[in-house]
Structures are given as C-alpha cells and as structure tokens.
Amino acid sequence: MINTILSADATPIAVERRGAGPVVVIVAGASNDRRGDEPLVAALTAEYSVVTYDRRGRGDSGDNGDSPPYAVEREIEDLAAVVASFDEPVIVHGISSGGALALLAAAAGVPMARLSVFEPPYRGEAEEVPEDYADEMRDLVAAGRWDDAVALFMMSAVGSPAEAVEEAKATPMWAELRSFAPTLVYDARVMGDSKVPAERLASITAPTLVVNSNGSTDWLKTAAAVTTKAVPGARHVELDGEFHNVPPERLVPELSAFYRDPR
Fold first, then answer.
1. Is 3.40.50.1820 the CATH number for 2-126+194-260?
2. Spans of all domains in the chain
3. pLDDT in tens, 110-169
4. DSSP-assigned beta bridge partners for residue 242
C-alpha cells in the first residue's frame, strides 16, 4: 500500500508498506528510490512490516528544490515524518548514504526502537572526497550536465576508475543512474566532509548495529569500524559479500537477530 505523508516543510513523501510484524523503515542510498532494495525488502517481509519511502526528489515524492534551499535537516524531517506516521516503535535500517542519513536522524532525536546501517560511506584522512565535491556536483546538475554529475559521483565518491565509468555509460543502467543525478547533490550534503561525524553520533541512544561486507574496499570496512566506535554501545559485524553488498540470505538473519535482541 502506497500513501503520501507531508514533511515539516509540506513536501509530499511517498511511503509504501508491505508485510506484517514490527515496522522496519528502509532508508535508501544514492541513486535509489523506494524500489531499489527490493531483494532485501522481500526477504524482510517474511517477518516484518517493511516500509520504504522515496527520499525527496526521487520517485513519487516531491521536492521543494531551491525554495527554500536544500538542507540535510529537511531530509531528517522527512524521515521523522515517516517514523511519526506509525503508532508503534519503529526500527530503521539505512543503506550506504541512507545509513549516514539515518545516523544523523538518530543523533537529532528521531525516535527509533533500533537502528541498523549498512556501510555508511565515510572516508578517512587518506582517502578524502575532494573538498569541493558537493559544490562541483551542484554546478554540474544546475548546468544540466547530468552525465558528468554521475561520472563525478562514481569516480570521486565511489572510487571507480574512469574506464569503469565509460563502460557503465554503455549499459542500460546508465539511464537510471542519470535520472537520479539531481539528488546526488543531496547525498553529497548528507556526507558532508566525508568524515565520520563522531561528535554528533555520540548522542545516539538507540541500540545500533553497523554492518559491512568482507568484499568491500578497505575504506568502507574502516568506515564501519570507526562509525561503530563513535556510536555509544554500537555493535559491528562483517558478513560474507561483494563490494558494497551482502546478499539478503546472509544479511536478514543478522538483522533479525539484532532486532529481536532484548538488550
């Protein structure tokens, strides 16, 4: 069932709920809308009422754009509105930059019974995203250079080599990636200076699980470990998987065990 709720600034947010059981809200990462994590959602619905939503500017949700200018606080308010639409405790699971957004929301006081995040893509001192990345992304999108915006994201944020970007351009998926280009600016703002915001995360009180794949790059593994250290009492688990991905058959049992844990 798909509903529309209004965020604090009256932006309409499309919300879909499937399954039955405790509510788990999924926060999607870059270049994804509420349909992007379908295998995970399908696996979770066996035990949970799974809620997916289109982050602002994506899918069926609205976007107030430049009036007022985008701010990460607006996306925190969007997630808060989704959580508040349920008259029961809500679990939140954030994926990639959606995990970073979920962490910031928890730190801002958005109520969560439990929080799990998969590989929030923070970088360390040795592998920083260029300082002007967010501004360059904004300028490319404003100029209508969406292909260049996606290429910038893949090379500067993901770390893909130029040849991999050229190969991606020749595939059917490029059109979909391109369609999300305007919201790459938003993900850039969510990630800030690309470092773990340890001081902010120290205020999180929700029980938190940080997950990473053993098939991911070292910087993503390090990010998971540093994020875990920053969140009081957080747990960390590394699972068998590929780059920035763990199959649902391995991830869901770990999430379920954490969600059911009374501690």
1. yes
2. 2-126+194-260, 131-188
3. 999 999 999 999 986 555 677 789 899 999 999 999 999 999 999 988 888 899 999 999
4. 245
